[in-house]
Design a protein that fits this description.
The structure is a single chain. By secondary structure, this protein is an alpha+beta fold. It contains 13 helices and 4 strands. Strands 1-2-3-4 form a 4-stranded mixed sheet, sandwiched between helices. Strand 2 and strand 3 form a beta hairpin. Helix 1 packs parallel to helix 3. The protein is globular.
Length: 275
Amino acid sequence: GGLAGFNPQNLANTVWAYATAGVAADALYAAVAEAAMSGGLAGFTPQNLANTVWAYATAGVAADALYAAVAEAAVGGGLAGFTPQNLANTVWAYATADHYHQALLAYCSRVISDSLARDPSRWSIKSRHQLHQWQLWLFLEHAADAQQHLLSESERRLCCDAMHDTRVRVSALQRSVSAALAAIRFGFEEEYVEPRTSYSLDLALPSSRIAIEVDGPFHFLLPDGRGVRKSNGPTLLKRRLLAAAGWRVISVPFYEWDGFATANERQTYLQGLLC
């Protein structure tokens, strides 16, 4: 029966649940996209639309036709019924997927700017964090076309401040990598706040613009049927934006690091990455 009998909310909730759990399920995502578009997205509420693109972006699943269809549906309705959270999830998803839709951006920029100016308290720290990443995407990766979609300087500052309000917890994994790195290379700073993006870099050598990101399990989807772990959307977005800001980003995945038994093996591994 496939997805027969699934209504729009069922479809949106299904991919949202899989993305939230970090499950790699390309066949499911493809089937949901096909089912959703075959009905022209009829019956999808603003929350369904936002949750759907958020799910595909979070799971790092390519779905250009679906992103285009959702954008047209949202624009066609003038974004009526989109809450701040829906708007933040939507623009973050398009940034994460690097799907540039001119009309959607124009609508979102206007509605979001009006809402922030009217009552910024309606926007949670998480939502403002997402808006900041969206604005970074426009500025760093689409600067030639996207200036018209940037928020005002004061609104961008309000969103950027949310990045600084996000608490960073240094894991035992990161401390292990930091200790091994200190034995072979001086000058790396831990939890360095990158000034252009406000991202916190796990380990950074600012003078050479080298960032080492210690990627624990939450940076990846669960292993697929072949045992392969793919980086999730938020991780891929951070790497892209840092690269666009001029950084060389090196990933140290937990599943590789945990495979080394000795300090010498770990130091040799890091030296290879830094070459």
